[in-house]
């Protein structure tokens, strides 16, 4: 089913949570991460950065099915829980690099607020491509020096 074959909602037209923009304007969810999330079985992310951005968006939208489907089977948790009342504030992709023919790393900072407290997650994530699909494997949290 293509996005045009289903009913378009306001959230489809809203700016994508991942923050990707084109010509200085935020892309709509439906043409950005929604393309991969809503059609993950037919439309795989073309690279690790797109997968990282779509996984961030899936966290914002609490889409456990997409997160599980794009988590490498060797590291996939049996279930996911979301932080109650978390308010996601933004994503910054700091670096994206291929580390091999079918491996890549994405360094990012995701910001959110929970219980009135600001949280900044800075991570270097590893991805692998298998059978034409990218999967999140794991990541190392980067802590800032005081």
Q: Low-confidence parts, pLDDT < 50 over ≥5 residues?
A: 1-5
Total strands: the figure is 6
Roughly what fraction of the amino acids lie in strands? 35-45%
Radius of gyration: 15 Å
Mean pLDDT: 91
Task: Give the helix proportion (percent range).
Answer: 10-25%
**Widest sheet, order of strands:** 3-4-5-6
Query: What is the first-to-last residue Cα distance?
Result: 50 Å
Q: What is the number of helices?
A: 4
Describe the main β-sheet briefly.
Answer: 4 strands, antiparallel
Would you give an account of this structure?
Strands 3-4-5-6 form a 4-stranded antiparallel beta sheet, with helices on one face. A two-stranded antiparallel sheet has the order 1-2. The protein has 146 residues and is of the alpha+beta class. 19% of the residues lie in helices and 36% in strands. It is globular and about 40 Å long. The chain contains 4 helices and 6 strands, in the order αββαααββββ. The model is unreliable at 1-5 (pLDDT under 50). The longest helix has 13 residues, at 48-60. Strand 3 and strand 4 form a beta hairpin.
